[in-house]
Amino acid sequence: MLIAAWLAAAGCVAEGYAAGKSRTGATVEHAPVDVAQAATPPAPAANTDPECLTITQSSETTYMISNTACADQSVLTSIELATGDASVRCFTKKIRSQISIASESAPPVINYQCIEGTPGCSADVLRSMFPECRAG
């Protein structure tokens, strides 16, 4: 499927067929390709991790991020905080039960969360996904 998409993007799809060249230079006809389907990228895989974290406001400028749904597991998360000067601060954190965050401008935003230890969920993976975020 990815080859068909690449061929379509490279202009190699003509009238529903992908054409290529063999080593001898002869044109090789391939199976019919649905051009509309080839140009459409596949849908991202659904996040199989549950939504574990909830945000509540505990005072005018303080918020609690609690691990309510997955209390017996640690959750790795990327959290974003707006600052007063329209910039954004970001950090990654492991939450077992709850953390308190001071935020004057707006509530924190959870950009991503996953259960630590599940496939694709480690501190290194989060750091690579959000290199601008500091470890928390």
In helices, the fraction of residues equals: 10-25%
Q: What class do helices, strands and sheet pairing give?
A: mainly beta
Q: Uncertain segments of ≥5 residues (pLDDT<50)?
A: 1-47
Task: Please report the distance between the alpha carbons of the first and last residues.
Answer: 40 Å
Tell me about this structure:
There is one protein chain. This protein is mainly β and 136 residues long. It has helices at 2-9, 35-39, 123-129; strands spanning 13-14, 17-21, 27-32, 53-59, 62-67, 75-82, 88-95, 98-102, 109-115, 134-135. It contains 3 helices and 10 strands. The strands form 3 sheets. The protein has a 4-stranded mixed sheet, covered by helices on one side. Strands 1-2-3 form a 3-stranded antiparallel sheet. Strands 4-5-8 form a 3-stranded antiparallel sheet, with no helix packed on it. The relative contact order is 0.16.
Name the descriptors.
136 residues; mainly beta; four-stranded mixed β-sheet; three-stranded antiparallel β-sheet; 3 helices
Indicate the topology:
Layout: H1 2-9, E1 13-14, E2 17-21, E3 27-32, H2 35-39, E4 53-59, E5 62-67, E6 75-82, E7 88-95, E8 98-102, E9 109-115, H3 123-129, E10 134-135
Parallel strand pairs: 7-10
Antiparallel strand pairs: 1-2, 2-3, 4-5, 5-8, 6-7, 6-9
Can I get a quick summary?
By secondary structure, the protein is mostly beta strands. The chain contains three helices and ten strands.
